[in-house]
Design brief:
globular; five-stranded antiparallel β-sheet
Length: about 120
């Protein structure tokens, strides 16, 4: 259902020139979502075989708001049932680590909910 979904920080021209754009764009395309705020903060890349309807169901407005407004500015990679979440800085205190853990659980529940809903249909 979701072969590869990458939500990464938006890079400026300098990010692409200095090698910080780590994601291969071969067989992937960029997707613009409805939330202007989310699109200002992130780039969303998916495999070319991604079903657009399922992707837009995953990124429901409430999920877009969560990602666009979260102070940790979380990024994630979801491939073949494996979710990796990260922030582009070091989290050194327990409060921020707990916040990241809770956010990761919300993102995982979002993917799991979409998978279950599609299987049930």
């Amino acid at each position: 259902m979701f072969p590869a979904v990458f939500l990464c920080r938006r890079r400026g021209v300098f990010g692409m020139l200095d090698g910080k754009d780590w994601l291969s764009h071969a067989n992937r395309h960029k997707v613009e979502l409805e939330s202007a705020r989310l699109c200002e903060r992130y780039e969303l890349w998916v495999d070319d075989g991604q079903d657009d309807v399922l992707l837009h169901e995953l990124f429901a407005p409430s999920f877009e708001v969560l990602l666009a407004e979260h102070p940790l500015e979380p990024c994630f990679e979801y491939r073949a049932g494996t979710l990796v979440t990260y922030v582009e800085r070091r989290l050194e205190d327990e409060g921020h680590l707990d916040w990241m853990r809770e956010l990761t659980a919300k993102i995982a529940r979002r993917f799991a909910g979409e998978v279950e809903e599609t299987r049930a249909a």
